[in-house]
Design a protein that fits this description.
By secondary structure, the chain is mainly alpha-helical. The chain is built from 17 helices and 4 strands.
């Protein structure tokens, strides 16, 4: 790993370093924007923003929601729009299903439509958050705040596109990861102040234990994200040499759905909190706090059940056994010991179901750790271990590392061929 990283500083990789510097510049601008409060808002006018989803949304935005900055919504509206578009492509609206089958041209159209839907959702969410969090505002004030928040999200989407085009990694994912990482120093600082100042030696040991536990969970998340089940395949038009056997397989990740099931489940539990914040009725607020927050037994069970349901749903949305079996047959490939066609489809479905049980269980455990930690510890709600934030950071970091590694290998291979010529 370190050997590959040292290659970045070689003169021939100057353009790759420029892409890295450009990415850091965009992320710095994003972090700077999280400190700029929406014009016209006084900090004292902000109401109680302690909704159940606040810490997750605040962490993904780099603390922007807590500050109610121009980037308070982050790129969450775009993520919600992406979820809506993926659902609409499941033969719900034939037009979107056809676009999904038209290759790059169709994907470009879907991406453009997703951006438009994301902007609309940003305005709606901006108005709702303004109404819920800002006290004593007029309808025109809320409309103005919503427009500013929508503009902030639009700017972030533009920056994300520039990172994808001229920088490193997926721009939207990089912005989310940067927001989460930006909150980590403050989290460890708060933890240190909670344990050490008046705790003496025992306080120091508790803080060291907290850091070690965080590292162990981080390693566990890396293990889950990199684990995969490989199904060997053979091709009728290829020899069965040792080289072919090593490279002919279908890899299925243990957690094929990624972090999306946790985000889906969080959104489901977010809706009652938003309703209670907008309604501002004591009865509704009491009901939500008693039954539908993650810290209550019923809310926690609902959260875990939703993770399992969405893990299955999103896995089979991403990996379609019918299409995979058909493509395999068209290319002359087959799974040893399994007949092509319907039996191959059933076999792939069975493998996906089994690994999804393990993946969903690991996902639920990782997502449940911060909820249980908050329930059984006296630390502030901003301090958490594991959870969605860690899943996102690890997933994006692994993708960026793979991209860097691929770029370096390709460049070395090209230069090697040039020298041989």
């Amino acid at each position: 790993m370190f050997k590959k990283m040292r290659q970045l500083f070689k003169p021939q990789n100057k353009d790759l370093r420029k892409r890295i510097y450009f990415t850091f510049l965009m992320l710095f601008i994003f972090k700077l924007g999280t400190t700029i409060i929406v014009p016209g808002i006084d900090r004292d006018s902000l109401g109680d923003t302690s909704l159940g989803f606040l810490e997750l949304l605040n962490a993904m935005g780099g603390g922007a929601l807590e500050q109610f900055s121009i980037f308070a919504l982050g790129v969450i509206p775009y993520i919600n729009a992406s979820i809506v578009m993926q659902l609409l492509q499941m033969d719900i609206i034939p037009y979107f299903s056809e676009l999904g089958k038209q290759g790059q041209t169709g994907r470009n159209k879907l991406n453009r439509i997703t951006r438009y839907i994301g902007i609309v959702l940003a305005f709606v969410q901006g108005y709702v958050f303004s109404f819920a969090f800002v006290n004593n505002g007029t309808p025109m004030d809320y409309l103005t705040f919503a427009l500013i928040l929508t503009a902030g999200t639009s700017l972030l989407l533009w920056m994300g596109d520039r990172i994808t085009e001229k920088g490193l990694g997926n721009g939207t994912s990089m912005i989310i990861m940067a927001g989460i990482i930006a909150t980590l120093p403050n989290m460890f600082y708060v933890t240190y102040n909670s344990f050490v100042p008046d705790g003496g030696t025992m306080g120091i040991l508790k803080f060291v234990g907290f850091v070690l536990l965080y590292i162990i969970i981080l390693l566990g998340v890396v293990f889950v994200e990199t684990s995969e089940r490989r199904i060997p395949i053979q091709y009728a038009n290829k020899t069965t040499s040792m080289y072919g056997k090593q490279n002919s397989y279908i890899p299925f990740k243990l957690n094929s759905a990624g972090v999306m099931p946790v985000i889906f489940a969080s959104i489901i539990l977010t809706i009652p909190g938003i309703v209670s914040a907008v309604a501002k009725k004591a009865a509704i607020t009491t009901f939500v706090e008693k039954w539908l927050t993650m810290t209550t037994p019923t809310g926690f069970i609902l959260y875990i059940v939703c993770i399992f349901v969405f893990a299955y749903f999103y896995t089979f949305l991403q990996i379609k056994p019918d299409e995979l079996s058909e493509n395999l047959g068209q290319n002359g490939g087959f799974i040893p010991g399994v007949r092509p066609g319907e039996e191959t489809t059933k076999y792939i479905k069975g493998v996906l179901k089994r690994i999804t049980v393990l993946g969903a269980t690991a996902l639920a455990i990782i997502a449940a750790i911060p909820v249980l930690f908050s329930a059984f510890s006296d630390l502030p709600s901003s301090v958490s271990i594991g959870g969605t934030s860690l899943l996102i950071v690890v997933g994006v970091a692994l993708e960026v590392y793979k991209q860097l590694e691929s770029e370096l290998v390709t460049r070395n291979y090209t230069r090697g061929r040039g020298k041989r010529k």
